[in-house]
Write a structure and sequence with these properties.
elongated, Tetrahydropterin Synthase, Chain A, 12 helices, 50% helix, 3-stranded antiparallel β-sheet, single chain, Helicase, Ruva Protein, domain 3, alpha+beta
């Protein structure tokens, strides 16, 4: 076995971020070859992933980043809050921003994992974190909005870094989209979505199965009522359900006397035009 110098161990440690003993052991197995030692350390991470495949990843970090007309929201998950708060995990979550911006897909997490920067895939970055922490880590949700000239995008991540939302407003003109009023309300609606947990944008975009199930529950609750009023009662309950769970109909968290669509319209009117919520995503870990 080749003699392993302290300088080689230090160099591998700088390259990999692994502990001194792990680096020395890997170099010993690789007969001092740095590249082979890096491969050994990465295999260690893959082995850990395989061993802990069934473990739940209910902790982690949601990240958001805005660069030019692109805004991303993504999550990196792990098993414990301790690892989620570690420098190694935080650094990987920060790198996730660069990979999300470089990805060729706007929503495919698998494509994001295969995205490479400087010759290294995001999947390899995550495997390195697994090797360092000894805990299962994995990519969670991912979405990227690319705003057009008449769009305004707002993104918000809660202070606990475990939940966040991204919202796009469609405006009547570029001037309205770039106005201070609309930019501010886009951020406010992202904050609202983070807190209010909407199930869908509106009735049309809600899962038909969810609607059918809710109707069944509503009908069952009034099954003993006279037949001629059951439909009206169910209709009323569904109207309330949509108001509570569709983003555009929800009472705005900063002024519950107005709906989300109303406050968006008012902000756009101040800017000299019109606007509506086009789409949103909300990611939560745990």
């Amino acid at each position: 076995m080749a003699e392993i110098s302290a300088s080689a161990v230090m160099k591998l440690r700088q390259m990999s971020g692994q502990g001194m003993m792990d680096c020395k052991k890997a170099l010993g197995e690789a007969n001092g070859n740095l590249d082979e030692a890096m491969t050994i350390l990465r295999k260690k991470g893959l082995a850990t992933l395989a061993k802990r495949a069934g473990r739940e990843t209910t902790q982690g970090r949601v990240i958001s980043c805005i660069r030019g007309n692109k805004t991303v929201l993504a999550s990196l998950c792990c098993e414990t809050d301790f690892v989620a708060g570690s420098d190694d995990f935080k650094n990987a979550a920060k790198l996730l921003e660069d990979y999300a911006m470089a990805c060729t897909s706007d929503s495919d997490a698998a494509a994001l994992a295969e995205t490479a920067l400087k010759g290294k895939k995001l999947a390899e970055v995550i495997t390195d974190v697994v090797s360092k922490t000894g805990e299962k880590c994995e990519l969670g949700d991912y979405a990227r909005f690319e705003a057009g000239s008449t769009s305004a995008v707002g993104a918000y991540v809660h202070f606990n870094s475990k939940v966040g939302s991204m919202v796009e407003l469609e405006c009547s003109s570029e001037a309205v989209a770039k106005s201070a009023e609309v930019k501010a309300i886009a951020l406010d609606i992202a904050m609202h979505a983070t807190a209010a947990k909407p199930l869908s944008l509106d009735e049309a975009s809600m899962d038909p199965k969810t609607i059918a199930q809710e109707k069944d529950v509503a009908a069952d609750l009034v099954k003993n009522k006279p037949a001629n009023i059951i439909d009206k009662i169910v209709e009323g309950k569904m109207k309330k359900f949509f108001a509570d769970n569709c983003l555009v109909h929800q009472p705005f968290v900063k002024d519950d006397k107005k709906s989300v669509s109303q406050v968006v319209s008012e902000a756009a009117k101040k800017a000299g035009g019109t606007a509506k919520v086009k789409r949103f995503v909300r990611f939560e870990i745990g």
